[in-house]
Amino acid sequence: MAGYRRGRVNEEVARELSAIIREVKDPRVSKALVSITAADVTADMKYAKVFFSCIGNTDKNEVKKGLESASGFIRKQIAIRLNLRQTPELKFFPDDSIEYGANINRLLKQVEDDLHD
Fold it and tell me: Is this prediction's pTM over 0.85?
């Protein structure tokens, strides 16, 4: 039963983070198109790994610094929006899964075009 609750908390944290990130005023975050791909909250709900992806020509390290800089604001918003006993401390990690999927899609399209030629 605890795994089920943790899964729901992970989904809710990721959903709320997606909305909160649009409110961050740090130019490193607001100018980039940032997408939250996943959140992984520990079993004791003290820490959360947040995986994000940036689309476009943005430096992921700069976006990560911007998110870490705004983590106090983000954490406060999580506490307001979600009714948790403890608000987890957020750690941000870049995620390349969207870019990887787009690259695979481009390669498959290229192979398909080569077959039809």
Answer: no
